[in-house]
UniProtKB/TrEMBL annotation:
Keyword Hydrolase: yes
Keyword NAD: no
Record-level Gene Ontology MF annotations: phosphoglycolate phosphatase activity
Biological processes annotated in GO: DNA repair
Highest taxon, organism lineage: Bacteria
TM region(s), chain numbering: none
UniProt protein name: Hydrolase
One Pfam short name: Hydrolase
Length: 221
């Protein structure tokens, strides 16, 4: 097959798989077990950051950092209970298949890795059209730093000006903007439209199904 001339880079949690609220509840419980009362709405706004960054964002720089690893491990264990039933968002798999058929290299850029990433890919059920995956394990800095998106572009062998990044959080939009790619936001992660627009979204859709039905008029046309 000829090398793709353009890349569609996708965040996964909240963008292709309906997991953000599972993350909220399991992070909330992990913090509670460590003696921290963190409001769920604050956790929701932080979802999409890599684990260490999320803990730092919510507990502050003056926290007892000795707790960080235990909190992250607790979240991982709690969230792992859902691996066998993570729900794909509507038309997530068909969207990726359509883009692949249209000649896009489809690349995932996610803070998930290992068994969690495998569970997410099973939920999407489109492995045969995913060119590559850039996980948090592959870069020094997670979103909103541009590195995850830049790494995804390197894997696809496509420059930023021929790429589009689709995500559901302000961290995604900032990472994509800093990497110099056009950003598309989806509302299915629960973050308000205005927040995504302020953070760099060029276009916004309800969910993968809405983007698929609107492809002809989208940045992914």
């Amino acid at each position: 097959m000829a090398k793709a001339e353009r890349a569609a880079v996708f965040d996964v949690d909240g963008t292709l798989v309906d997991t953000n609220h599972l993350h909220v509840v399991t992070w909330w419980e992990a913090f509670r077990q460590a003696g921290h009362d963190v409001p769920m709405h604050a956790v929701h706004r932080a979802v999409g950051l890599a684990s260490t960054d999320l803990v730092a964002h919510l507990l502050g720089e003056d926290r007892d950092t000795d707790q960080d690893a235990a909190i992250s491990a607790a979240h991982k264990a709690l969230y792992g209970q859902y691996f066998d039933r993570l729900p794909a968002l509507p038309e997530a798999g068909p969207l990726l298949r359509r883009l692949h058929g249209d000649g896009w290299a489809v690349v995932l850029a996610t803070s998930a890795g290992g068994a969690e990433l495998s569970a997410l890919r099973r939920a999407i059920d489109a492995d045969d059209v995913i060119t590559a995956t850039a996980s948090a394990d592959d870069v020094d800095a997670g979103k909103p730093a541009p590195e995850p998106v830049e790494h995804a572009l390197d894997l696809a062998g496509v420059p930023a000006e021929r790429a589009v990044f689709v995500g559901d959080t302000v961290w995604d939009m900032r990472a994509g903007s800093r990497a110099g790619v056009r950003c598309v936001g989806v509302l299915c992660g629960g973050i308000p439209r205005t927040d995504l627009e302020k953070s760099g979204a060029d276009a916004i859709y309800a969910d993968p199904a809405h983007l698929l039905s609107s492809l002809r008029d989208s940045p992914l046309a």
